[in-house]
């Protein structure tokens, strides 16, 4: 995995390119709902994204339409997963004058634990979609009956 350290030369060399991404994290503060000059509402937010054992990266985001409405209902500390166009950015810190690096995402879709609970309560998502482990003997029988992979392999 390429570390999400935005001082990485990869990010610095590709700062004008967009990267399709799935980003999960926790909101650092309440999302901020605003209206653009065109009258279109949007929401901006900051996510703390865990990378590695103790490191985290702050990703700033902006969302429009349905995603903006859903993210706008969340608050500080809520978990959030977003997909969209990720872009590395650079700026100069006003206090220290130091060059800083970051990541911005323009959201195309989002999912929070509240969305999952809502879908489960409406019967759209099973309570636990993961397959259940079975006893060893039964599992072997199920795989033998259903796998359809009985080709001889010559190693």
Q: What key phrases describe this protein's structure?
A:
155 residues; alpha+beta; OB fold (Dihydrolipoamide Acetyltransferase, E2P); five-stranded mixed beta barrel; disordered N terminus
Task: Tell me briefly what this model is.
This protein has a single domain, classed as OB fold (Dihydrolipoamide Acetyltransferase, E2P) (Beta Barrel), CATH 2.40.50. 21% of the residues lie in helices and 39% in strands. It is built from 4 helices and 6 strands.
CATH-derived topology: OB fold (Dihydrolipoamide Acetyltransferase, E2P)
CATH top level assignment? Mainly Beta
Named CATH architecture: Beta Barrel
Q: Count the strands? A: 6
Name the CATH superfamily assignment: Nucleic acid-binding proteins
User: Largest sheet, order of strands side by side?
Assistant: 1-3-4-6-5
Count, helices: 4
Structure, explained:
By secondary structure, the chain is α+β, with helices and mostly antiparallel strands. It has a single domain (9-144), classed as OB fold (Dihydrolipoamide Acetyltransferase, E2P), CATH 2.40.50. Helix content is 21%, strand content 39%. The protein is built from 4 helices and 6 strands. It has helices at residues 9-13, 65-72, 113-121, 136-146, and strands spanning 19-27, 32-35, 41-51, 55-64, 79-92, 99-111. Strands 1-3-4-6-5 form a 5-stranded mixed beta barrel. A hairpin with a 3-residue loop joins strand 3 (41-51) and strand 4. The longest helix has 11 residues, at 136-146. The radius of gyration is 22 Å and the shape is extended. It starts with 8 loop residues before the first helix and ends in a 9-residue tail after the last helix. Residues 1-6 and 135-143 have low confidence and may be disordered.
């Amino acid at each position: 995995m390429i570390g999400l350290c935005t001082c990485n030369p990869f990010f610095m060399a590709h700062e004008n390119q967009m990267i399709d991404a799935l980003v999960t994290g926790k909101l650092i503060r309440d999302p901020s709902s605003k209206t653009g000059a065109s009258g279109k509402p949007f929401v901006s937010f900051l996510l703390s994204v865990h990378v590695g054992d103790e490191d985290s990266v702050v990703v700033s985001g902006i969302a429009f339409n349905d995603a903006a409405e859903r993210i706008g209902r969340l608050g500080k500390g809520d978990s959030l997963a977003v997909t969209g166009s990720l872009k590395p950015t650079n700026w100069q810190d006003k206090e220290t004058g130091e060059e800083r690096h970051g990541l911005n995402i323009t959201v195309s879709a989002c999912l929070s634990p509240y969305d999952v609970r809502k879908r489960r309560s409406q019967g759209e998502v099973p309570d636990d979609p993961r397959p259940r482990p079975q006893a060893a003997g039964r599992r072997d029988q199920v795989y033998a009956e259903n796998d359809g992979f009985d080709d001889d392999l010559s190693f």
